[in-house]
Structure formats: structure tokens, C-alpha cells
TrEMBL record, chains A, B:
Keywords: Transferase. This is Polyphosphate:AMP phosphotransferase. The keyword Transferase applies. Gene3D superfamilies: P-loop containing nucleotide triphosphate hydrolases. GO terms for biological process: polyphosphate metabolic process. Residues 12-234, 269-489 form the Polyphosphate kinase-2-related domain. It comes from Thermodesulfobium narugense DSM 14796. GO terms for molecular function: polyphosphate:AMP phosphotransferase activity.
Length: 491, 491
């Protein structure tokens, strides 16, 4: 594909000046229209060393209102991001609806320069392409516009530019060993790029190759491409074209066996205490081993209101070192979270290697409360099963131990607990109008729960259903499941 | 002070059990009340190694609703924070109103363990105490409650505990070389602690020494102290006691010479272009030198609406590498920003070493729009002069070059530009109702501006007043001032 590109295209100063001013005005206007339409835009710049990324990005910024865009630079903190799944840092920087992110060092780095420099391990390459497709696919499905530019110059041109840079005392520092290596491996980089186009030049996020020999020509092509893309998207929004889901949704007939679960399982207080303390001591030790062996863990709690999530979490963390775990309570998203993709706030809380993140309610809200309360379109929650599995796959790919608990009780038990809370002055605050409203929708929730359990139980991250009518039994089963799963991983 | 402390206090299991349960219930209730009152709470834990920080913090967390607190752990990213003023990372983690932060590795580390281990350079120690006082003072003045615990054990006790830890195969790793060094230097640590108490045991943020030999005793004392502190603060809030400002405010009589400024200075287009391009080339080179020599820069733009801030910023950045600068447009704070101290959002944007942060409007909004529009109490903006100077001092202490511009035009020029914007279809969006409303308050803004210029022009960070009736002249003066100031710093 690339060899067919004509790298000799140029543009003279006069044509450039004229075009640039008009395109700038048009782009500025489009940015404001996109903001009013709450259209989030991601612009990716990648390509050969010395192809002029910096200059071209700066040109692009000039007509833009700084109130609406952000340039994603070299990520400050490898020590932080290297300890988390690859896409953590990119999720962190997606723009909120109406804003623009210009990504200078994108997720393609690992498959271009880093791959050529052998900084990307082969086993990552294997699944990185899938992760890129799901990342871009999820954003586009959520209404994001992604425009990807690849800056292309010839080997000769690169050679000349590096020579010039080396001569300039203020810029010579930019010609690092890596840059020189990449120049020597120009052909390898070209091959890597071909592979990238082959696998990631999708309909929902296509690549545009920019002939970057002549800066003026490149600038104008970037402006025109971007303007066309934004116009196209705005048109689609105004015509309310719905984007196709990339997981074909099919209704689940065979329901899970929640009904068949034996909720009578129970423990006496004595049995409970007898099991509790040894388990907590074991958890205390396991936490250190997780920390020492740098294994990250996510524990996800879902369940009916008053099923005992809080109590289980308390018993789980009681013997842990607070420096190694975090409890993340998930409530209704705030204004700022709503302005992002719904998975964004969960990516923020991915634990670093050796740490434990405990979610009190999770991303499954999308297919539970948001589905039942109609807080999102059918299209959105139907798509979510696939998106959630993709996200969890990225977690487990990275080596995160992902434990998912569904705390199950029956309607009668919930009623008793609600009433007990209302009576007890110290628990009264725990019960709200919402709880009663949710309860009234029990029968709408049930099929949503069962569908969730079926669709999202995977080999790497199965659901653990906890019989929770008896709190003692439930807590011990949660702790035992945790201990066994962690031991399994550590041995 | 410390030698007088009795470290033999203990508590038996029964008393403990009883007290703990009651105090837990009380603390839980207080947390909810504090949240309703939007009271932000910061709890600092410091003290000797092996004094039981982790365990005691965990005990404190158990009765708390996780929806309302966060444990600030060892900061993940030294590479990021070491490149910024010391308090950057702490500002990042202050709780929003109604929340609690439990700080595990606090700002006192630099003056305790790090100082004993000679990791803190003497010249930092000199001004660190001032920075701590202004940090805590600013937060308390803004309604934060700060509770500081120092966990105290004897040299003997520490010795025994470290021995036990070493024996335990799962915990021996915690006994690092630093920990052993700190044990050997027990006396030095004690002296450092004495100095810390001497200088930072203030009325607005006092220290509580916790005899930590007996965990039960320590837990109860921590709970009781915290409960008393929160109750006291809640009482104060309900009685609307206003906290004393720590800068005595005096009105400024002698006004600045804004009126005497010659706004007729101007340049022809030819003169402008002739000066512009060489200046931009110089800025391009200076940016690389700043980057190479790791010098951080903050450029702060204030001025009347339509004074030409945007145009100056554009000319300033046109020749810069986007990877090295950021433009931070400051508008009305959003809901989330309002939930923090007003300086919080600016601290978020402090540039790392070698980078340039350009603020389009700044923290001076506190003493301009917020004062004139009565968006905060007189007490708040009056206090702000001192707070802003303290913040800027921390910037310059760290080596940040801080450039402050006031772009000055007269009322007539503003009117012409407003009208021009309304006529011009490409600038129309730039003019809003707000602009006209602000303009009508010109005469209220003038004294606020003059007072700001007088009160906040310091030796390290003076105001540069730019005569901006003529755009060409203004832009060139901004660029020249920038170039000269940076050269001065680099040579």
C-alpha cells in the first residue's frame, strides 16, 4: 500500500496561504459546532521519525479554541502506566463529549517504533491488535470520532532531515540513539506500518496517509481530511444515524439457574468465627505475597440491595494493609463521568501491579440498573455485554486476577433487612427511597441479572454466585473463594 | 515535649471492645453529618517506623463509609512529582468538600524520615516549614479540618518490633535498609520530630501525639481525638464562626498608575512583521534550551475582555513545539472544581521541569471577577492576596520562571473591538452577553485591577503591564518580555 504513495507532492506558498486561512476559519467554526453537538474527537498522529509531527500538530492547534482541545503528550509517568494494562493510560486521556484530543504518542507506538526497536514483546503484539480494535470500536460506538494520520517520508528524506537536525545545536539532542536505530531500520518500520494498516484501517476508524515531504502540502491535506471527517460525522448526528453495534445481539432464552440456588445454606455464629479468623490471617499473608509478586487483583461485587456487599467487603479488608487495597464504591455517574464513555471511570481505577481494587458495584450497572431504569438505549446495554467482556479480557491478558461476586438473596430476606435497617438508628441512613423503588422492580431486574450472569461468565472471569440469605455463610464463602482463587494464581 | 510522654499506657480487651463499638458508631454518624455539612477532613498519620501506621489506619477505615474517604498512599509517580514544587502532589489529593482524606505519607515526610536520612536538602528545609504553614493555613481558612497524628514508640519497642517483623517470612521485606537506618538514628528522628512540633503545632492544625505501644490504647485515642475534632468543627460551622484570615487586610489608598499608562504606543504592520519572526525564531530556540536545562515556566495572562490575550498567546506559541507547552484556559470553575479549594485547579496545572504552562486567565480571578461579581465573601478575596503570593513563592522557590501579564486597553478600544467582533461572522462567537455585562462594570473592575497590581507585584514575580490598544505593539512587547526574562534566567 505505502509503496504506491507519491511522496513528491508539493504546494507553493501562495496557494498554501490562501487555502490555509480559509480552512482555518472553517475548522474553527466546525470545532464550535462539534462542541455544541457534544461530539468528542480524537486525532491520532503517528508516522516516521522526523516526519514533522510536532510542527504539523502545532499548525493544527493554531485555529482551534484552546478551551476545547488538549494535546496528549509523551506520558509523564511510565512507572505508573507500565504497571497497568496497556490501554489504561489512553482511557485516562479520552476527551469528554464536545472536546478534541490530539494524540501525539498513540497506542500505535507499541506496534510501530517500539515493535521495531523490540521494546514490545511478541506475546503483547498478538493481542494488542484486538485491544486496539475494541478500544477504537467502543469509542466510535459511543459516538466518538477518531481520525488517524500517518506521516510518511522517504528513507532519503529522513536521512537528510536527521542530518540537518544533528547540525543545529539547539535540535541535535532530538536525534537520539533510538531515532538513529529507527532510521537504520526504515524498511522494518515500513513493514510494521503495513501490518498496522492491514489490521486497523477499519471503516469506523480509517487511516489517512499524509505525504509529509512538503510541510505545506501535508498541512493542507491534514486540515481537509479532518474537516471532511467532522462534517461527515456532524451530518450523521443530525440525521441521527445510529452506528451499528459490533456485537450482534441475540436474546437469551435459556435462563441461568438462579432459581435453583439453595438459599438455605447457613452457618452458626460459632462456625462463622471459627472460620473467619484463620481466613483473615491467610488473606493478610496473601496480600503481602500479591504485593511481593506484583500481581494485581480486581474484586467486583454485585448483588441485590441489602444482600450484604458492604459486610463482605469489610470482612475481606479487615486484615489487609490499607496501603495495598482500595475500595471503590460505584454510584450514579456524576456530570463529568457522564461526559465520557461509561467504561472510562472504571479504567481510572484499574489497580497497579501488586494492588487490590475492590469495586462495591461495578461496570455491570450498564446491563442492570441502566437497562431496567432505561437510563440508556437498548442498543447501548445490548452492546455492553461485548464491551465488558473485551475490557475484562484486557485485564486478564495483563495478568490481573478478576473475581466477580453476585450476592444472591430472595425477596423475603431483602424485606426483612430493609425493615431491620429502618428500625435500627445506626443503620437507618443505609436505607433510602431508591432501595424501596428498586425493590418494587425486582421482577424486571431478575431477567437482567440472569442474562448478565450467562453472557459475561467467561473462562478467565466467571461469576461466583454467593448464597447470601445467611450473612455468615455468604461472608465465609466470599473469603474462601478469594483465598482459593489467589492461591491458585500464586502457585 | 516528647520525653514527657508516658509510653506505658495500655488498655484491656474488654474495655477496648466496648469503647470501640460505640466510638465506631459515633464516628460513622459524624462522617455522614460532616458530608451533609460539606466539611472536608484531612487526617495525617506520621511517626516512627513500625509504630503501626498501617494497622491503625485500617482500624480507622472500618467504621467509615467508603463512599466518603480516600487513603492517600505512597505517591505512585516520583518521576512526575519530583519535577514539580513540593506541594503539587499534596494539592492533587486534597479531599473535596464533604470527603475525608487519610494521608499515609504526608508532607512531613521530608522533615522527618527523609530529613534524618539526608534525602531532604538543607535549603529545602529552610522554606519547607513556611510552605507547610501556608498549605495548612490556606486549607483551614477555606473550611478544611486537619487532624495530625504522630505515632510514638520507644527505641526499645521499635527494636523489638523490627526483630519480630524480620522473623516473619511474609513481613521481613518491610524491614528495609532505610527502616534500619531510621532505627539506628532514633534520637535524630526524635529531634526532627521535636522541631516539627515546635514549628507546625498550630492552633488551626494542631498535632496529637499517640502513645502507640499498645494498639488498643492507640486506636481508642485516635478515635476519640478525631471525634472531638469533628464535633468541634461542626459546632463552629453551625454557629457560623468565621475563621480568622491569616493576612490582616488593609485597604490600599495609593492606586497604581494604570491611568498614567501611555496607550498610544503602536507599531505599523511592517514594523510588527519585521520584529515578529526573529522573536518567534528566538522563542523556538529558547524553548529547547528550557527543555534541555529542565527549567519550568508559567506565563499568566490577565487583562480586559478583548484586550488581545488570545492573539498574544497564539503569537507566543506559534513557533513552539507542542510537546513542550500547554495552554490552560481558565473559565468559571465547574461543580467539581468548586468542591475544592479555589487554588486546587491551578496546582493541577503546574508545569513539570522543562515545560511551559500558559494560563489564559488565572488564579487572579479570585480578586477580580469573584470580587466584583461577589462570587465569594469579602473575607475570601481579601485573604486571596496573601494566599496567591504564598503559592507564587512556592513556584519561584522551586525555580519556576513566573511571568505575569496585564493587557491594558481603554474603554473606547474595547467597545470598538466588541463591535468589530459582532460584525465579523468569524469572530462573532467570541462575543457574549457576559462580555457586555462585564463591560458595564468597568468602573467596579478598575479599582480591583489596580489593587491586584499593587498587592501582588513581588520581586520574584512582578506584573508586566502591556499597553494593548495597539495589537501589534502589545504582541511584540509580550514576546520581547518573554524572551528577555527567559534569557535572563538561562544565563
Amino acid at each position: 500500500m505505502l509503496e504506491k504513495v507519491d511522496l513528491n507532492k508539493i504546494m507553493d506558498r501562495e496557494d498554501y496561504k490562501k487555502e490555509f486561512d480559509n480552512l482555518s476559519i472553517e475548522l474553527g467554526a466546525l470545532q464550535r459546532e462539534a462542541r455544541d453537538l457534544k461530539l468528542p474527537i480524537i486525532i491520532v498522529f503517528d508516522g516516521f521519525e522526523a516526519a514533522g509531527k510536532g510542527t504539523l500538530i502545532n499548525k493544527l492547534m493554531l485555529p482551534l479554541d484552546p478551551r476545547g482541545y488538549d494535546v496528549i503528550k509523551r506520558f509523564e509517568c511510565p512507572s505508573e502506566t507500565d504497571n497497568r494494562p496497556y490501554f489504561y493510560k489512553f482511557w485516562k486521556t479520552i476527551p469528554k463529549r464536545g472536546d478534541i484530543s490530539i494524540v501525539n504518542e498513540s497506542w500505535y507506538k507499541a506496534l510501530l517504533s517500539d515493535r521495531v526497536l523490540k521494546k514490545t514483546s511478541p506475546e503483547i503484539v498478538e493481542y494488542l491488535f484486538d485491544e486496539i480494535l475494541s478500544f477504537e470500536g467502543q469509542l466510535v460506538a459511543d459516538g466518538y470520532l477518531i481520525v488517524k494520520f500517518f506521516l510518511y517520508i522517504s528513507e532519503e528524506e529522513q536521512k537528510d532531515r536527521l542530518k540537518k537536525l544533528k547540525k543545529n545545536k539547539d535540535e541535535s539532542w532530538r536525534v537520539t540513539d533510538d531515532v538513529l536505530k529507527l532510521h537504520k531500520k526504515y524498511k522494518k518500520f515500513l513493514d510494521a506500518a503495513e501490518t498496522v494498516f492491514e489490521k486497523t484501517d477499519t471503516a469506523f476508524a480509517p487511516w489517512t496517509i499524509i505525504e509529509a515531504t512538503d510541510k505545506r502540502y501535508a498541512t493542507i491535506k491534514i486540515f481537509k481530511t479532518l474537516i471532511e471527517a467532522i462534517k461527515f460525522k456532524i451530518k450523521a448526528i443530525k440525521e441521527k444515524e445510529e452506528l451499528p453495534s459490533f456485537e450482534n445481539f441475540y436474546p437469551v432464552n435459556e435462563l441461568s439457574s438462579l432459581s435453583k440456588i439453595d438459599l438455605n445454606k447457613s452457618l452458626t455464629y460459632e462456625e462463622y468465627i471459627e472460620k473467619l479468623h484463620p481466613l483473615q490471617r491467610e488473606i493478610h499473608d496473601l496480600q503481602y505475597r500479591l504485593w511481593k509478586e506484583r500481581v494485581p487483583v480486581i474484586v467486583a461485587f454485585e448483588g441485590w440491595d441489602a444482600a450484604g456487599k458492604g459486610g463482605s467487603i469489610k470482612r475481606l479488608t479487615e486484615a489487609m494493609d490499607p496501603r495495598g487495597y482500595t475500595v471503590i464504591p460505584i454510584g450514579a455517574p456524576n456530570e463529568y463521568e457522564l461526559a465520557h464513555h461509561y467504561l472510562w471511570r472504571f479504567w481510572q481505577n484499574v489497580p497497579e501491579k501488586g494492588n487490590i481494587a475492590i469495586f462495591d458495584r461495578t461496570w455491570y450497572g450498564r446491563v442492570l440498573v441502566e437497562r431496567v431504569e432505561k437510563l440508556c438505549k437498548d442498543f447501548d446495554w445490548q452492546r455492553a455485554y461485548g464491551e465488558i467482556k473485551q475490557m475484562e479480557k484486557q485485564f486478564t491478558n495483563f495478568g490481573i486476577v478478576l473475581l466477580k461476586f453476585w450476592l444472591h438473596i430472595d425477596k423475603k430476606t431483602q424485606l426483612e433487612r430493609f425493615e431491620e435497617r429502618e428500625k435500627n438508628p445506626f443503620k437507618h441512613w443505609k436505607i433510602t427511597e431508591d432501595d424501596w423503588r428498586n425493590r418494587s422492580k425486582w421482577d424486571d431486574y431478575l431477567p437482567a441479572v440472569e442474562e448478565m450472569l450467562i453472557r459475561t461468565s467467561t473462562a478467565e472471569a466467571p461469576w461466583n454466585i454467593i448464597e447470601a440469605n445467611d450473612k455468615y455463610f455468604a461472608r465465609i464463602k466470599v473469603l474462601e473463594t478469594f483465598v482459593n482463587k489467589i492461591k491458585e494464581k500464586l502457585n
